[in-house]
Design a protein that fits this description.
With 481 residues, the protein is of the alpha+beta class. It contains 15 helices and 13 strands. The protein has one domain (3-473): Amidase signature (AS) domain (Amidase signature (AS) enzymes, Alpha-Beta Complex).
Length: 481
């Protein structure tokens, strides 16, 4: 099979070809490495790439396993680069910080171990912002990752390297993590699908804290909904070492061939009645995507959030500062750290120093009230819809947007406010491609938020939408110059 044809295959097609012995794992790895070596110097999506000979040896071992009996699982022989927040035994876990450049992991993160058990071959890591802060993938260790569609603008983040590697066919699938849109925003800006799973769906282990730090979660990214569901199937499942992981059998996430949107009730929250600053063109594009679903039988209705958005933002700041500060504090113990850490990380840490337990509990009560309020909304609607981002991809040299539609952003992450609602309520949220800016170069995503633990239902909705927009999804980014 032609190497370019191999790297173009989605994960399901590639898995089928490997299982049927139409292509060997070595041939898959050779094709992937050839594309990575050709494009990654300009994409800067994959970092700490492992040596070719070691990867080809692993591919040969996967071929030998197939000859002896069968595949390990869905990912058998597939190249995979892991986001640099997660641990891969023998590879550095840097978080994009020079302070951690030599921080070699002794064990795999749980979801990485599950992906390896399903047969993937880890080729390296994917780039991210320093400490995962801000939805723009740049750091002083590896540099910036440009958008797959326009190298002059941001790829988003913090899973920006994953999204670009996926869009540019360096990888058949990608993983990432999401705290404040870190799977959803780069997926939307690179014209792929990204899912933030329900809280506890993909357990995080090992981690310093297993009880409180639940806003961030790992999850999948893919070019098709079936691939997205299949990777979640591998990553998900209870583990006693993660006590708040979801117990019970893992649902079947795979949408059936007849998935459709007919009869679904969708609440369009838009810009929350003007609360969110949104750049021109984004809301109409998302509304056009919703109109396609409405034409196919979905019921789309404009709706109000019905909860004080300013109160939510204030409570969010408390939670984010408290959780982020702990990680930054650990890094600050390293020699010379304060002079080498990005200003936004120091700001989070320093702002948290005045927080009291009373402040945190008050914010937790607001969060609890919000969750209860959303349960009421889900009595009327099956899914809530919002833009996945408030701005179009911005210039790559800009650290973050200071202004949106004439409104000043008072923090480095205020422009990402649209992503906090699913996170704060622990709900699954999926970014689906909505279309492009009028210039034809900048993708945008529509954010769909599902019921508690409603990951499977959300994936079925996304599959129904996918069936309506095949021509738009078939668009490919230009290869980097």
């Amino acid at each position: 099979m032609n190497p370019e044809t191999l790297t173009d295959l989605d994960a399901h097609a590639l898995a089928h070809a490997i299982r049927q012995r139409a292509v060997s794992c070595r041939e898959v790895m050779q094709a992937s490495l050839a594309r990575i070596h050709r494009l990654n110097p300009r994409c800067n999506a994959i970092v700490n790439l492992r040596p070719d000979d070691a990867l080809l040896a692993e591919a040969d071992a996967r071929d030998a396993e197939l000859a002896r009996g069968g595949p390990r699982g869905f990912l058998h022989g597939m190249p995979q680069a892991i986001k640099d927040t997660a641990q891969v035994a023998g590879l550095p876990t840097t978080w994009g910080s020079p302070l951690l450049a030599g921080n070699v992991a002794a064990q795999d993160s749980l979801y990485v171990a599950r992906m390896k058990a399903a047969g993937c071959i880890v080729v390296g890591k994917t780039n991210m912002p320093e400490f995962g802060l801000g939805s723009h993938t740049y750091n002083p260790l590896f540099g910036a990752t440009p958008n797959a569609w326009d190298a002059d603008v941001s790829a988003g983040g913090s899973s920006g390297g994953a999204a670009v590697a996926l869009a540019q066919r360096l990888l058949p699938l990608a993983d990432g993590s999401d705290f404040m849109g870190s799977l959803r925003n780069p997926a939307g800006w690179n014209h792929v699908f990204g899912l933030r799973p329900s809280q506890g769906r993909v357990p995080g282990w090992p981690r310093p804290d297993l009880w409180v730090a639940q806003l961030g979660t790992d999850g999948p990214m893919a070019r098709t909904v079936r691939d997205l569901a299949a990777l979640l199937q591998v990553q998900a499942g209870y583990d006693a070492r993660a006590p708040l992981s979801l117990a019970g059998p893992v649902p079947d996430f795979m949408p059936g061939p007849a998935a459709e949107v007919r009869g679904l009730r969708i609440a369009w929250l838009g810009d929350l009645g003007g609360h969110l600053a949104v750049e021109p063109g984004i809301l109409p594009l998302c509304e056009a995507a919703l109109a396609r679903m409405q034409a196919a039988g979905a019921h789309v209705e404009g709706a109000a959030l019905g909860f004080p958005a300013a109160m939510l933002w204030d409570a969010w700041l408390v939670w984010r500062r408290a959780l982020t500060a702990a990680g930054v504090a650990a890094a600050l113990k390293l020699p010379g750290a304060r002079d080498r850490i990005k200003p936004e990380a120091l700001w989070e840490h320093d702002q948290a120093q005045g927080l009291s337990f009373e402040h945190f509990m008050q914010a937790s009560q607001v969060r609890s009230s919000f969750h209860q309020h959303l349960l009421g909304l889900f009595e009327r609607f099956d899914v809530l819809a919002l833009p996945v981002a408030q701005v179009w991809p911005f210039p790559i040299e800009q650290h973050w947007p200071r202004e949106i539609a004439g409104r000043r952003m008072d923090t480095y992450h205020r422009w990402m406010e649209v992503t906090l609602y699913a996170t704060f309520a622990g709900l699954p949220a999926l970014s689906v491609p909505a279309g492009f800016h009028a210039n034809g170069r900048w993708p945008m995503g529509l954010q769909l938020i599902g019921r508690p633990q409603g990951d499977a239902e959300l994936l079925r909705l996304a599959a129904g939408y996918e069936a309506l927009v095949g021509e738009m999804l078939a668009r490919r980014p230009p290869a980097p110059d």
